[in-house]
Amino acid sequence: MDIKSPNTTESIDVEKLSAVFRKNLLWFIIIFFATNLSAYLFIRYTKDLFESESELKLDIKRDATELGIKPMIEDQNLNIVSGEIEQIKSKLFFSKLIDSLDLSVSYYSVGKVLKDEMYKRSTFRVALSFINKVHYDTPIYFDFVNKDQYSILIDNPKKTKVTGTFGVPLEVDGTVLTIVKTKHFVENDGNDYYFVINSKASLIEYISKNIQVDPLNFNANTIRISFQDYNALKAHEIVNKIDSLYITYSNQQKNLANKQKIDWLNNELAQVETRMGGFEDYFENFTLKNKSSDLTLDLKRTIVAINKVDSQRYELNKKVIEINSLLEEIQSGKIATANQHYKFLPEYVNKRMEDLSKITHERDQLSLAYNENTFAFQAEGARIKNCARLAVQSIIRNKKRMAYLISRIEQKERSIEKEFAGMPDKNTQFTKNQRYYKLYEEFYLSMMQSKGRI
Known about the structure:
Layout: H1 14-23, H2 25-45, E1 50-57, H3 77-88, H4 91-100, E2 105-110, E3 115-117, E4 124-130, E5 139-144, E6 149-154, E7 161-165, E8 170-172, E9 175-181, E10 192-197, H5 200-210, E11 211-217, E12 222-229, H6 232-290, H7 295-332, H8 347-366, H9 375-453
Antiparallel strand pairs: 1-12, 2-3, 2-10, 4-9, 5-6, 5-10, 6-7, 8-9, 11-12
């Protein structure tokens, strides 16, 4: 047995390889022709697909604290980029994009194998005045009759075919259109054409299917926009239009968001102003009604007033008691000396009491010299009765006046006590409204500052 060295290099057995090749020569020829034929057929019968792309850097102002609300996380780049991508891929943005592009009608040239979209190089152009919905997304075949006329065939069950004149409106089953020649017109070029009136739904689906929006760098806020189409010019113009439209659309959306914020702030400010106005009216009415805005001081003053009124009532009751005692003395005939002065009586009543005391003293002196049955003694007694009657009448009038004053004081005291009983509740309500007013005032100032930052 031969043992090969590890360093020995195995060579190709040419004779064996040749034998295998000769034996399978037919298969090699079949595979060679099959692969080349497949490549030829693919290139011949497959349209070229073009892709146009663009990169955008998002310049987004992040004001998470516009309304005084702090963000939960510091880095929001991921949310910002994702939000902008979703905005670009939204149907609303696609609708704006379609409105800014000339995609309402697509023009095609029908070849022997493939069809070719003649984007911005069509030999004719269609202007639509009114569209019957049944004609949307339906091929309408076009043919030049001569240099002034054309014919169109609508691909429907009826196979409607009509002839029209260039530049003259034509009505077909409810659709009104005007076809004119373009600078690309070549007479008798031998090509077959058709055009399609695109509905907005089909255009949105077409753009959504062919657009690709991907994030490139979250930290740099950059995204990549690409669009694929079989027409290179069309793909290029759609991407360029997305770039220019996005800036305007994004600004409009941000302005709309800012307008919504401002409208919300204005609405909230109006409500806060109304509530603050209600509190201000309450404070004004409270001050006018209570003649004060310091209930603590009013509480102290009320206590002093109650004590004062109570003292007045006590003094008047004391005087009434003394008057009653004096009346008893007068009725019993025990009159004090003429020099006694009653402080609880007016001066004119004191004068009558002095006269009564003086006459009574004179009668007592006369009783020492005269008998009670004498005329002089009886005359003095009559004078005493008359003077006592006048004094009693004056004292009773004064007593009634004091009773009236006591009733007034008691009424006033009850009113003060009732007001005093309600003061703690008023103070609580007033303090509560003051606290709410300060909170609304701070909230109002905060929203005004937020409105200024937008």
